[in-house]
Amino acid sequence: MDKKYQNESVKLDALRDIFGDLAGSSHKILIFSQFTTVLKRIKAIVEEIGLQYFYLDKKTRSESRVLMTQKFNEDTTEQLMFF
To answer: Which residue range is the domain that position 74 belongs to?
Structure first.
């Protein structure tokens, strides 16, 4: 590993590149992780890039989950959903 490497994770760097490539497209992305700390880091990247997203974790109420899932499935604009 390069001792000069300063970023937090190669995988998060790869996601940042993928998100940047998909910005402005109509692709939908689902990201699953049981680690909320990872989801929060990904959320920060998405906000930095300026993409729209839905964020779901164990604190999300079931009524909100249903509404977000319906919107994600029906909407043709760019959306990200996190579990």
So the answer is: 28-82
Please provide the distance, in angstroms rounded to a whole number, between the alpha carbons at the two ends of the chain: 31
**This prediction's pTM:** 0.74
Residue 83 predicted with pLDDT over 60: no
Question: For residue 14, is it within any domain?
Answer: no
Per-residue pLDDT for 14 more than 70?
Answer: yes
Helix axis angle for 10-22 and 36-49, nearest 10°, is: 40
Contact predicate 79/53, CB 8 Å: yes
